[in-house]
Design a protein that fits this description.
alpha+beta, Arc Repressor Mutant, subunit A, 5 helices
Amino acid sequence: MPVPLHQAKAELFRTLGHPARIRVLELLQNGPRPVRDLLAEIDVEASNLSQQLAVLRRAGIVTSYRDGSLVMYRLSTTHVADLLAVGRRLLGELLTDRDELLVQLRSDTTTPS
């Protein structure tokens, strides 16, 4: 029996739900990077980065290949970068709305706390 679309989407978002994985994807937006460069940019142990890259690879979000002695990673599709950009815009809007609410709450002196 095929997996329902909403379940597949939920699994995709669960896969994206780790800060190190998001950071990897952000770094790969500008093109392929070797593991050593990713490790230098992300504050995690090498074994943890390896685990996070494996999760992204199993999900098909990134691909890897060898370039000489280097293991390189790249986004599997440009849609990953698009998703990150939408997430950034959405987060900006959500935080703006919260800031506006906070200003309203602080300026409302007629209602007791």
